Amino acid sequence: MDEKKIRVKIWILIAVFQIFLMTSFSFCEAYMIREADKNNILEVNEKKIEWKDILWVIVNILFSNKNFVSALEVSDLQNGGWTCVDAKDGTKCQQYIASECASKCNSTCIPTASINASECRLGTCFNPTNGECNIRTPKLICERTGSAWYSDPSGNIAQCKRGCCQINGEFSFINEQECSYQSSLLGITKNFRSDLKTELACYSQRNLNLEGACVYGAVNDEGKRGCKFTTQQDCRTNIKGVFYRDKLCSNAALNTACERMKTTGCLSSKDEVYWFDSCGNRENIWSAGIGSWNNGSVLKKADSCSIGNPSNPLLNANTCGNCNYFTGSICGNAGGIGGTASKCIDLNCVDKNRNARLNGESWCEYQGSVGLDESMGGGRASRSTDSVGSRDFRKTCIRGEIINEPCADYRNEICVESKVDISGGKKMSFAACKLNTWQMCLEMNSEPGKKATCEKNSDCFLKQVSVGDFRFNVCTSKYAPGFLFEEGGRGDGAEAVCGVGTQTCTKTEIKKLSGWKCVGGCECTSSKFTQEMNNFCISLGDCGAKANYLGDLSEGYSISNAPRLSSSYLSSVQRYAYEEFFKDKFIQATSIPSMILGIPSASFGGGEYPRFEGASFLTTTAIGGVGFIASYAATHGVGLGLGFISTAAPAGFIGPTAAPMLSALGGALSGAGIGLSIVSMLLSFTGVGAGLEPWMAYTLMALGAAGGALIGATVLSGGLGGIKAGLAACATGVGCIVGIVIIVVVVIIIIIFKILGIGKKRETKVTFTCEPWQAKNGGGDCGKCGGDGFPCSAYACSSLGQTCQIINEDSDSPECIDVAKGDISAPVLSPWTELISRGHNYSSVKGNGFSLVGPSAGCLNPGTQVNFGLLLNEHGKCRYSLEHTNKFEDMINDLGTSRLFRKNHTIIYTVPTLGDLGYDEKTDSGNATMFVRCQDKNGNANIEEYAIDFCIKKSVDLSAPVIVYKSPGIEYLKYGENEQNVSIYTDEYAECKWDYSDKEYETMDNEMSCVANSQLANSNGLCTTTFKIANSGNDSFYVRCKDHPEIGNSSVVEFNLGGNKTLKYDSEEINYNEIIRLNGGSMDNVTNVTINESVISNVVVGGINLTQMRNDNHESSRFYLRETVNPLIIESAYPNGENIEAGVEPTTIRMRVTTLNGVDEGNALCYYFFENSSRIPFEETGSALHLQDFSQVYSGDINIPVECEDVAGNIAKMDVNFKVLLDSDAPRVVRVYSSGSSVNLITDEDARCVYSTSNCDYEITNGTVIPGTDSRVHSFPYEMGNTYYIKCKDRYNWNPGSLCSVVVKPSRIGGA
Amino acid sequence: MERNSRGDRGQATLWIIVGIAIVILIAVLFVMNRGPKGGQVDDGSFDINSYIEKCVRDDVLDVVDEILPHGGFLVNRASKNYNNISIEYLCYNQGFFKPCINQHPDYFNEVNNVIKENIVGKINSCFESLDATLVNRGAEVSGGMASLNVNIVPDKIVVKINRSMNVIEKEVFQQYDKFDFEITSPIYMLMRTALEVVNSEAQYCYFEYVGYMLMNKDLIIRKTALGDSTKIYSMEDYKTGKKLNIAVRGCAIPPGF
Questions:
Q1: Is the CB of residue A942 less than 8 Å from the CB of residue A827?
Q2: From B233, which residue of chain A is nearest by alpha-carbon distance?
Q3: Out of A217, A478, A706, A1227, which could bridge A1288 as a Cys pair, Cβ 3.0 to 4.6 Å?
């Protein structure tokens, strides 16, 4: 053999070695990387809960067409709400769902939402006669009354601005027209002060009345005159007496018949106890002793005796009558204590904890613990503590009485409190019932960006579940809401919310030499998992294991493969109901507006909360729901072995002149590589490697390398002598033999390990099912409702027992009663004949059961989903077992889709296979019975099992996979994006492909990555891919799927027809008649060929089971992607950059934002931010025009951040800045001159002017109008000798009141 | 001494007689004052004003007492039944989450009319009764039907009646055209408070009644939240105990999801 050939052979050999090394070392590297990086396990258990999926579930429950309860008709979702001006129940301008509107309306329904119906547009209704102002009044309803309607819905119009109206010495804070109207009716002159802008300022005028002795009448026989203590005006106008300011009638100098300090008593308009003289006139504030007479002069309140001090406001009540309503005392009948019938009565209170409460003070009381468990740190690891049935209350001390005000039930409102410092180091509490925005907390989970703002809302917290490597977080309410678990509607929704807390954690173990070792989800099976999951579950609402407000525990959860909750844990939950846990605690009010108003006004105006119109939103979201459980991401390690080439390659390129020693070295290296590779491959392929400790795996690989090196060195030690020589050397060389022995030993060890099961993996799925909280059976505790000192409510009542029900709810004496007392009857079951899957039937219906039959009264197909139902004659919950049991409690399987007490039970049953039921899979069919028991709310369950019989046939599948839904459902791409990762969910395990055009499955170009997904209900397959818009701009994507990927890719089935005949058929085109014909009319191996609506049973042809054939879609599912060509922008925002003049304060500003571009021609949702709030939607938004009224705008520089987002997630932001200027001055006349026979006036702003020739004391409406309305120039003809008293008012109605703008008296200069 | 004693006895007798006479006089006056409705003066002529005023006062106060518990109406348009009393919704939104919509934007006029419509018949009857009484006394009476206006103002209800009436009695001719009365009632304050409640609820879904009570000492306000999110506000005048109930439903929050 020539040298050249030998060299070539060596190169080939080395190349082969290197390729082998490269390939095998990649496994080796992957193995080592996997061992080194345990994070890949972590990611498997990382949970990501998509709120859109929750909505999807809810929508499916509420709006599904599958015989579930349908709350709304499909058309309602499209049509939304319609407006009825005159409803049959007497109400006006109400909005009803479209399908119900006509039946509830006396007039024709307006097919639009009330906000868009011009008749029902809300504004301010002003009655120009009596001055009555009503805000948020429908236009038509206002105009029907003859009143004037203004578009400002908040009453910020000049006509409605209030001032201080004084009529006959009485002050009231009303608008000017009301003042005028009342004064005209009473025939008394009014005095209206528009400059007094608050109620307090107005009422303080009462104290400024000049009062004194009014001496009147003739001198009597004793030389005395009459006297009345009154106001100066009354004295002069009505009594016609002589007024002595600040003097008492008993003042000796006045010489009246009135004697001082005869009696004491109260006055209805005053707080204090007063002395009265012998004429019945009020004197000074009562105090013991003569000092209070003050020598017959008025003694001011401030100079009178002191009733007490901050620590004891009534310290001197027995000697002093200087009561003060605001510090908690008022004149009252004291039964003669202290020598007087009247004294200062204590208006303060003492609460149930013996705390002193001031008059007007308010505070919170709770029926159970509220908010997070501070003993758990109160942070994200904590849990909500609110008990089922509990409610918050605001208590108020008024006039010595404590008023109990319940906040909204179901914890839709929470009581918040703030303590403020008052004098003397004391604190005073102010409390309010505030909206619990728990829905907003849940909504924040819909997008990661929103979730990040979760805790900006003081009602929300980011609940974290962390059990080892199993962890996730969800934004939920600190104050878990109460649920209504009624059948249908809201009960279903609540059940779905609890369902979010149902999670599966997978524990993964590998068998090691030392036994099974956990490598992931290790704490899933621990009690910690159950506890953490229950903490999460109870934070969602009335779910899981928790207690009602009286401390009765109920465990609304189930757990598989992990311990149940311990008694100590349950006790820790139970204590939330006990007062010692929450005594003296309260929810701190975060801001004054939130405390006083509950919520910023604007945020309530726009329906930003989930509401009935939101159904369309839910539907939209539903289409794009992502998997309930997030997809896993674990791709590691591949390809890293390539880096080894550079170090291995030089060994093979030594060249022909190399010395034999060098050749041996090269052989040793190559041999070591081969040995190492063989061992690592064996470890990897057998799976044994995963079960070995790293040192042991490395030792085995090292031994393999050593063995390989010895062999390699020996084989190549012949250098250029050739392979044959090398092999000969190996046969005789010790090194080679030792090497072989080492490798064989290593291989044997690996085989032994394999036999021992080392490296085996096992997974334990631990599922925590978060169920709705259920009250205990019966109604033994119903009577306890209201027994804790708080009023009984429907919610509290229902938490005490399943049969508790409130009566007289709309009265002061509601009562919680047991509505099933004495009921010992179990529910009676019957089939729900209206609910049955197509092609199936109920048969042999008897009192104790029925048979469920498939098509043609045959057996059921395994793996298919059969929907059927049971009807109960009373509310109950049902369980089933496939074995006989003795009682309800022995049955472990809940029956039906709901855990609620229902009369109608829907069952979605996936028919098991024969193997599942213990039958031999080869048998044609098998019988099964589902034994059912149902328990009513009183705990009565049927003793005899209700039997549902059915038979199951051999597995068969001729149905192509069905795409259940795609995620994300949103087909829009953000600006700059042209692709989208999507997940396709199928009803069975399948593989899917896609293409830009509609093609046969086999010819589609793009494959998807598909896995079996058993965790998502109704969806057994999950395929993922990336849709990318084609360069051609094609944005349509066609998807087809093919089932049974496990069978392989052969789409052609070969049939043995007997003898030498075989027939190949595409599985899609089998012609059974052809098979039979070709087979001479008989097919020994063909049994029971039935084709009926794509259902075929038990077909075996030539030993091939036709049920194993694969089915693919004949039609494509089409999806789209819409690209954002231009980014979303805020085109305009009024009043950005504007200076807005307002005549009243606060004023209403209507913000008007328009959006442009984006993915949907500018259609978007716009939000604004209030202080540090999370974003609040505009009142009207969703199109390209967005409107929001801000009704509490004061003068100054205003900044309102605005953010708009379209359906693709494109965001546009803008800070809207504007300035509000307040015009609260009457117009000024800046120039007066005459021209000809006219007087000309120039005002400093547009104005309307009038004049009178008598004086300034006239109503501006009664003046003679001067031409020049709404301008600055005014002109009128004058007559010499007249004096013109001129008043001008501006567009905001500001005018000089009882004064004049100017007085003009024409005269001739120089007497001409 | 004896003379003196006799004189003293005579003086005492005289005083006793005077005393008895005074008692009899008082009794006569008392009996006379319990005369026919409307009052009768001692000169034998009728005080027509007093007669009508009493009618009006009683009728108005009866109607007011009747309408206050129902929200100011006798026949409710849209109401909530609470404690077996139907209470008018002054502000209502049948949906969820949105503030209430004002249902009675002309509240004062509406209540004025309710009072008017429910007393006009009685007042006409009162005039007819008056006419009959005067005729029985021998007077000649002529007149038409009464028309009236009712206005609720602070602390009182102003009733202005237009009714022409000519009376000739004992050759004395009297002519009447209108009768104006002011009847003390706290209804204005109660209705004014109701208006405040409605405007505040319509805007904020909330009315801070505690603060309002502190500012208005004569007022007691109670709020009751019912299961369907209806709020019943009861405004009570502290001095008279008269109570106005109104119902409001807005920003209703449904239980659960």
A1: yes
A2: A405
A3: A1227
